[in-house]
């Protein structure tokens, strides 16, 4: 028996490869299926089943393409109604993979079709549970994403999740390994651990949602407290996972169309395409195509694209580092953005050599920023998440989280220079690009973000828990 967690950090997502005696089960595959197919070939094994824990909202799964490629059936738990052929398993149904048994545990609550899969070894002993978005390490799946589809309130879904955890998950042995669908960084929960593998016993000790003496009312209150609105692209990804999608090879072929600066400019003007620049924030600050949006490929790329662009049908033109256009298109497709129509051949340097107009972002080091704010009072905008800001921030700074920056546009002054920062410089450059695309140019980015601000000795306000106040 071998179990491999294939973890994708950008999405904080875990897919699983399970092999026994030449038979393979895949759980929650990513859209690009080559790694799973190649791994099975390496093991001289055949992919027998593709298990889906639910209709994922935060990424497009590879189940449809993988089934088409291998002939392996797709398996969902009860209540799933996909538009394609699939096995809709019953609660408790079992499937064999070599010497192993995979038992269906219907665990609704995150969504009503949410299902966990219990793996038993060749002796019939419970070995591991693949818990999808039902149970994470440190948290449980948010219960607000399926309200419309299930015709239920988030409170009713939370009550259902409470029952699922206590009747299907918590009775498992403490030594049973927990393999969740996500880790820290996913928007599918609030307090996900950085660890990606745990045990039932460990979660009973550390996960607030699995407290033995927790009432259903307490669970509902704690699980629903502090939920931020889900990213705009979530329901669109659910739709693709439920109804099917275009093969990724066709998406890549269309997107890797090399365009000269002249052709790129014509395409931008004629198609209303969004120009997405995925280079480093330093390169973008030095020079970029006017009104282009920066979301760097070497950061939390795909989730930020989904959160800020929203519409998966949006035509996109790419400015990428040399040789990374296919990688960029692949990572866009993971979250359903399939409408890349080309990339700038030769990159930004080709644009400059063609004497095309370009823009830049003013950026200063934290030491210079310190000198400025010591001499004068100036508007400061912190684009970190509310929790980060509440914990620690510059006195008198405004919190305008990047996730919801379009809701804060009226707050940015038009008649004076203001400063923008985040934690390390990635998010503030995204914010700067969005503001400039909206015609707001009187901004200066603080390079290195809050980390550099503290290192420069700029005073910050620390949050003090009220219970510690005398």
From TrEMBL:
Which Pfam families does the record match to this protein?
Lactamase_B, Rhodanese
Tell me where the signal peptide lies: none
Drop me one GO molecular function for this one: metal ion binding
Give every Rhodanese domain span. Answer: 269-360, 374-462
Q: What InterPro entries does the database record attribute to this sequence?
A: Metallo-B-lactamas, Mito_Persulfide_Diox, POD-like_MBL-fold, Rhodanese-like_dom, Rhodanese-like_dom_sf, RibonucZ/Hydroxyglut_hydro
Record keywords, A-Z: Hydrolase, Metal-binding
Q: Does the keyword Cell membrane apply?
A: no
Task: Specify whether Metal-binding is a keyword of the entry.
Answer: yes
User: Which PROSITE patterns does this entry report, sorted A to Z?
Assistant: RHODANESE_3
GO terms under biological process = glutathione metabolic process; hydrogen sulfide metabolic process
Q: What name goes with this protein?
A: MBL fold metallo-hydrolase
- Organism whose genome encodes this protein: Aquimarina aggregata
């Amino acid at each position: 028996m071998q179990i491999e967690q294939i973890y994708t950090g950008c999405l904080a997502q875990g897919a699983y490869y399970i092999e026994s005696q030449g038979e393979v089960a895949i759980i929650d595959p990513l859209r690009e299926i080559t790694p799973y197919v190649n791994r099975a070939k390496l093991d001289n094994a055949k992919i027998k089943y593709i298990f889906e824990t639910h209709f994922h909202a935060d990424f497009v799964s590879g189940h449809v393409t993988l089934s088409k490629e291998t002939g392996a059936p797709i398996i969902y738990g009860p209540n799933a109604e996909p538009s394609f052929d699939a096995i809709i398993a019953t609660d408790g149904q079992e499937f064999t993979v070599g010497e192993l048994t995979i038992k269906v545990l219907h665990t609704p609550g995150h969504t009503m079709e949410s299902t966990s899969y219990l793996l038993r070894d060749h002796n019939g002993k419970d070995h591991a549970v693949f818990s999808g978005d039902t149970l994470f390490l440190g948290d449980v799946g948010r219960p607000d994403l399926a309200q419309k589809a299930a015709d239920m309130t988030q409170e009713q879904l939370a009550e259902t999740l409470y029952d699922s955890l206590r009747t299907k998950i918590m009775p498992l042995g403490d030594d049973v390994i927990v393999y969740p669908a996500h880790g820290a960084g996913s928007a599918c929960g609030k307090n996900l651990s950085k660890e990606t593998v745990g045990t039932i016993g460990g979660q009973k000790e550390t996960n607030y949602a699995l407290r033995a003496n927790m009432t259903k009312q307490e669970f509902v209150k704690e699980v629903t407290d502090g939920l931020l609105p889900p990213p705009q692209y979530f329901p669109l990804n659910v739709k693709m996972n439920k109804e099917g999608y275009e093969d990724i090879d066709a998406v890549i072929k269309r997107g890797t169309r090399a365009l000269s600066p002249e052709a790129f400019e014509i395409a931008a003007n004629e198609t209303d395409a969004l120009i997405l620049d995925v280079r480093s924030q330093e390169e973008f600050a030095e020079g970029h195509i006017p009104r282009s949006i920066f979301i760097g490929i070497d950061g939390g790329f795909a989730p930020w694209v989904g959160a800020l662009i929203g519409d998966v049908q949006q035509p996109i033109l790419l400015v990428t580092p040399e040789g990374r256009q296919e990688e960029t298109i692949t990572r866009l497709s993971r979250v359903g953005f399939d409408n890349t129509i080309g990339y700038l051949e030769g990159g930004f340097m080709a644009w400059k050599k063609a004497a095309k107009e370009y823009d830049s972002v003013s950026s200063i080091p934290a030491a210079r920023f310190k000198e400025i704010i010591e001499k004068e009072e100036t508007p400061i905008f912190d684009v970190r998440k509310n929790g980060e800001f509440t914990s620690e921030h510059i006195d008198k700074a405004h919190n305008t989280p990047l996730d919801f920056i379009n809701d804060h546009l009226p707050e940015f002054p038009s008649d004076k220079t203001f400063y923008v920062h985040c934690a390390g410089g990635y998010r503030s450059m995204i914010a700067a690009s969005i503001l400039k695309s909206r015609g707001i140019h009187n901004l200066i980015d603080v390079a290195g973000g809050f980390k550099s601000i503290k290192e420069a000795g700029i005073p910050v306000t620390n949050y003090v828990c009220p219970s510690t106040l005398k």
